């Protein structure tokens, strides 16, 4: 019987590279508020990488250093208060540090101390979205057959009032690194300040019924001049001709 062949080292290097590539797939945020979450993701990743390297190194060292050479029982160590205290304090300190940075990032994301430039009421309903631009008369209404677009200006603070008309939904745009639930009877407020123009896809991530998959929308970020032109036309015509109206 031939001995089982070991996997070549190249295969293990390829697996490690795949893990690193997957770890780098977190998108960078397109909003000012999301930069705090992105930095927090990186901090968690760096600390996790250090812990992984240290633990894996100790495991490999232990396997090599204390591998069995004969039938004699190796020297037994019955407890070490200093070591036990050390490996209890280190994880505790790491958790406390991550907790502090998490609270700072959360406070920055949820900060609404500044004045909003645009106020939009986002109403989630089975199974689409309504975007109402407060004080303008403009409104975009979607349906399962038409995807609505929320048009916003770049560089300005957009204050969202998120409500639900029926069941629990969820407002999520992956590129913002931010998600908030729409709960019946509760008004949720948050700010988004987009730092680049473009078209970003959003969706409901809370199962809300048979047509949950149809609850998609788009956020179109345009220049301030383009936004003013769109808003003027939307106000005059009730956003007629816009996607999902």
3D architecture notes:
The chain is of the alpha+beta class. It folds into 2 domains: 34-65 and 82-109; 118-237, Immunoglobulin-like. The protein is built from 4 helices and 10 strands; from the N terminus they run αααββββββββββα. It has helices spanning 9-23, 34-65, 81-109, 224-237, and strands at 118-125, 128-133, 138-141, 149-153, 157-164, 169-173, 178-182, 188-193, 198-203, 216-222. Strands 3-2-1-5-8 form a 5-stranded mixed β-sheet. A 3-stranded mixed β-sheet has the order 4-10-9, with helices on one face. It has a two-stranded antiparallel ribbon with strand order 6-7. A hairpin with a 4-residue loop joins strand 6 (169-173) and strand 7 (178-182). Helix 2 (34-65) runs antiparallel to helix 3 (81-109). The longest helix is centred in the N-terminal third of the chain and has 32 residues, at 34-65. It is elongated and about 90 Å long. The chain starts with 8 loop residues before the first helix and ends in an 8-residue tail after the last helix. 22% of the residues are buried.
């Amino acid at each position: 019987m031939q001995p089982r062949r070991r996997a070549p080292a190249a295969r293990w290097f390829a697996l490690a590279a795949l893990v690193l590539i997957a770890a780098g797939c977190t998108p960078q945020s397109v909003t000012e508020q999301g930069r705090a979450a992105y930095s927090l993701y990186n901090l968690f990743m760096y600390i996790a990488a250090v812990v992984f390297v240290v633990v894996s190194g100790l495991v490999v060292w232990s396997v090599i250093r204390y591998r069995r050479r004969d039938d004699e029982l190796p020297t037994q160590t019955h407890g070490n208060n200093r070591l036990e205290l050390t490996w209890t304090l280190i994880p505790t300190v790491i958790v406390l540090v991550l907790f502090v940075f998490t609270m700072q990032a959360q406070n920055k994301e949820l900060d609404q101390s500044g004045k909003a430039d645009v106020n939009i009421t986002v109403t989630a309903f089975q199974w689409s979205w309504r975007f109402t631009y407060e004080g303008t008369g403009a409104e975009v209404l979607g349906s399962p057959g038409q995807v609505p677009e929320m048009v916003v200006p770049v560089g300005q603070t957009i204050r969202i009032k998120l409500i639900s008309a029926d069941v629990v939904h969820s407002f999520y745009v992956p590129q913002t690194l931010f998600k908030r639930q729409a709960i019946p009877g509760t008004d949720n407020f948050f700010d988004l300040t987009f730092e680049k123009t473009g078209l970003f896809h959003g969706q409901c991530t809370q199962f809300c019924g048979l047509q949950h998959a149809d609850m998609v929308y788009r956020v179109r970020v345009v220049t301030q001049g383009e936004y003013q032109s769109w808003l003027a036309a939307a106000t005059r015509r009730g956003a007629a001709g816009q996607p999902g109206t």
